[in-house]
Amino acid sequence: MELRRLGRTGLRVSAVGLGTMTWGRDTDEHEAAEQLRIFLDAGGSLVDTAATYSDGGALDIIGGLLQNEVHRDDVVLSARSGVVDGRLDASRRALLSSLEETLRRLGTDHLDVWLVQAPDPGTPVPEVADTLAHAVSSGKVRYVGLANHAAWQVAQVATLLEHGVGLACAQTEYSLLNRSAEVELMDAAQALGVGVVGWSPLGRGVLSAKYRHSVPADSRAASPHLRGFVEPYLTAYARSVVEALATAADGLSRAPVEVALAWARDAPVVSSVVVGARTPAQLRGALAAADLDLPDEIRDALDDITQPAGRR
To answer: Which of 53, 143, 174, 211 is flagged as catalytic?
Structure first.
């Protein structure tokens, strides 16, 4: 798997990252261990998690795997903080407390990448930036970033950090079904030297084409925990995109999931895309895209069909 620089930093991450949102809830520790082995065997390195995943259960599973299955240096650990008891809290107190708890549960003394989960209107931006800088200077974090922030917010924090630790990345949802990052965020990231990490490059699973005719009983849309996460993309527009994707995949003799992943992975400014698979089989299907280089005519056709409103 290709390794790419995270923005202008010297850190290299795998072009596809391993998401852990379902770990500890829909994915047990044995399936998680198999996923991690598959991912590392494929050349992957970036493992993405958050303090809120399964109420910390995902952190516990990763911590166990780092103790018993893989060496800490084999993975680039990325984690997010900034949500406390279901509410946004990016105060210095909340962020640093979450960082300490995250490190404790992971059983490691540092994170490779630490991100603020979402913008908190109740915390001054300079306080957030200062907290990120402090985390790096303390040695508990190597690089910092923002998740789910608007372009102007990324620019604001990047400016505050530019003469110090720097802002390494901006994590955002990005797929054929959600190209809103292209309207402003990607241009800002490119100008600022910030790497873009796309989450849900498979459109919350919808671009796998599993929902073309029905909702499978074992799918995210059928899960009481994740139904609300998937439903926004179970629309007539999404179905039209999936049909176009399936047609493109048929023409390339590949699976829709591979084409969707390759499209997001190879977009300009993208350092990595994070795939969250519930099962090892789903992960293998996504990783099969490693050797797929989309022909220009296929990419152009998919671009035209899914052009974001701000770019039309």
So the answer is: 53
* Euclidean distance between CA atoms 217 and 223, whole angstroms: 8
Q: Which of 90, 95, 45, 92 is nearest to 70 (CA)?
A: 45
Structure tokens at 12: 């290299």
Q: What is the pLDDT of residues 22-70, one digit of tens each?
A: 999 989 999 999 999 999 999 999 999 999 999 999 999 999 999 999 9
Other beta carbons less than 10 A from residue 131's beta carbon: 22
Q: What is the pTM of this model?
A: 0.92
pLDDT tens digits, 171-204: 999 999 999 999 999 999 999 999 999 999 999 9
β-partners of residue 274 are: 17, 199
Instruction: State how far the alpha carbon of 219 is from the alpha carbons of 29, 82, 124, in Å.
Output: 19, 28, 40
237 is catalytic: no
